[in-house]
Amino acid sequence: MMKLILKYKATISYIITIVLINCLFIYLPISHAFGKTFSIADFTVGSIYVVRDFAQRELGHKVIIAMFIGALLSYILADPTIAIASLTAFLIAESVDWALFTFTKRPLSKRLLISSSISSPIDSAIFLAMIQRFNWVGWSLMTTMKIIGVFGIWFFWKIKHQRSQMLTD
User: Where would I find the H helices in 46-107?
Assistant: First the structure.
């Protein structure tokens, strides 16, 4: 059992992160800025991209199974509306990412940035609209935090890639 947990630790972390973030949208208070509402949870959503990328390394395209498990647990532990909105937004954003990764011929590092720059605003808009909280403040915060998360992944990947090249030279 412990070997299984260690083998899929990123995937388990991904599922837990999905549930945790979705619960935060239910249990954290709503805040106000510029006459609009937003959730403190908007600041946490960028972390999901980091954890998802590690889970995707473990599972490949089967990471979608982990996404469904996280949504099911969120349906039970958070709120059905949040879980459905989260899953819908993830699936659409993943489809955008998949299409951009599949059909663009740019280097991987550029595809990461392009796909997240397009999918993050779409994901945020869909999620917030489905939970009846769409406004420009919440959307901006959520999108910005996702893009920061992706840039963090990109930066980590770039450094790791450069170190690998230096070792082979």
Answer: 46-59, 63-77, 80-103
